[in-house]
Amino acid sequence: MTEAVRPEYRAMIFGDIEDYSSRNAGEQAVLQTALANLLETAAREAGLERPHWSRQVSGDGEFSVLTEPASVLDLADPFVRELDVALAVYNRRQYGDNWTRVRLRVALHVGPVLPAGPMGVPGPHAVQVNRLANAPAAREAMKVCPAADLAVIVSDRVFDDYLSQGYGHPGPARFRPVTVEAGRRCFPAYLYLPNTDVHEFRELDVFDPPADGAFEGSGGRRAVPRGNVVRTRWSFRRRGRPEPEAEGAERPDVRTRAAVILAETRKEANWADTKASILLGAIGIAVSGVVGDMVNGVVSGAWGASWPWLRWTAAGAAFMSVTLLLMALYPRRIRLRRPLVNAYFGDVVAHSDPRALRAALERPSPDELGRLTDQIHMISRIVSTKYRLIQLALWCLAIAVLSGVLTVAAAML
């Protein structure tokens, strides 16, 4: 008696090259090689064993079923993150006559699948991940955002069971709910573009989930009608009006302002060091001149005249001014308040060796805005301290100059 073949619950990925058919034969050959190398690089950097996957290759894409213990979370992060990095590196290194930019649409899905047959993996879930990768919403997103190298679209099952529950990266607020049509059926999916706020593109409004929640797909979260508002757990779309920011989401303009403030703060720290160095050099020249004149006997009589307290006041104030300027120039290393963040050189050198640093960098890190605000806060404190020391040094220098002038004037009377 033949044993029945049992399906296995597996993660699936489909990677497809954007605009493949418009390239000539030479460019298509380069694209195929590039796709294989990019997927291999991303899998290797993510710690996944791609040679063990069940792979089905087409001219412009690859469908793969992962083997245990790899899960869909391994694909969402770090595989997608490493793939985005690999794409950025490849697209910056332009070489060869047939070189052409690579842009990918990647679909993630999970479900029970049968072992691969003679012509590939059978079953509705294998078909669904293919439909996701070729969804009009993903194609339109790549069209309206030409700077994007990668578009990621996940099934409602991946979103509901994993990403919306806070497992892995990216967070659920970074995804935009869309509708995917497959013949006479349609089902929900979620779209994500790395380093891009996909909610901003009004051209994608036509792919918003229907207000009545009338999907014919499987088991996903359904939209609930609210008049002219479409609400799901992770979306809020009002026709003709900007939607409010999702809770915890970062607006790109906030990150931009924070980056500008950080750059200005670092520039101000450099200016503070420059001013302290100039003042310290000027004091050194003045002291050298006074000492030289004393050696030559020019001001030795005045320096030894009456009112010795003025003499000691001038010397003490000059010494304090030099000390304060040296304190302003002294390098400061302040540990940021987020122990798992590698935000500046002080965090990097705290690791024992390069392998420990790599492991720390590969860990999911806090949000970018948090790293920026930590640096702004700490560097601003450093700049403020430097300027207070410079101000005190200037006051001491003024006292030293005034006492010296009065000492010479008293000797001349």
Q: Would you kindly provide a brief summary of this structure?
A:
By secondary structure, the protein is α+β, with helices and mostly antiparallel strands. The chain has helices spanning 25-45, 72-92, 124-133, 136-144, 156-161, 252-296, 300-303, 308-329, 345-348, 354-362, 368-412; strands at residues 8-17, 54-57, 61-65, 104-113, 150-155, 176-182, 185-192, 224-226, 229-232, 235-238.
Verbal overview:
The chain is of the alpha+beta class. It folds into two domains: 8-248, Alpha-Beta Plaits; 253-412, no CATH class. The protein contains eleven helices and ten strands. The strands form two sheets. A seven-stranded mixed sheet has the order 2-3-1-4-5-7-6, with helices on both faces. Strand 6 (176-182) and strand 7 form a beta hairpin. Helix 1 crosses helix 2, helix 6 packs antiparallel against helix 8 and helix 6 runs parallel beside helix 11 (368-412). The protein is elongated and about 115 Å long.
CATH hierarchy: architecture of the largest domain: 2-Layer Sandwich
DSSP summary: helix tally: 11
CATH superfamily of the largest domain: Nucleotide cyclase, GGDEF domain
Helix- and strand-based class? alpha+beta
Strand residue percentage: 5-15%
Biggest sheet layout: 7 strands, mixed
Q: What integer is the average pLDDT?
A: 76
Secondary structure: number of strands: 10
The geometry reads as: elongated
CATH class of the largest domain: Alpha Beta
Q: Outline the low-pLDDT stretches.
A: 216-252, 336-340
| Percent helix | 40-55%
Query: Helix and strand succession?
Result: EHEEHEHHEHEEEEEHHHHHH
Strand order of the largest sheet: 2-3-1-4-5-7-6
Instruction: Report how far apart the termini are.
Output: 125 Å
As a whole number of angstroms, the C-alpha radius of gyration is: 33 Å
Q: Would you tell me which CATH topology of the largest domain applies?
A: Alpha-Beta Plaits
The domain tally reads 2
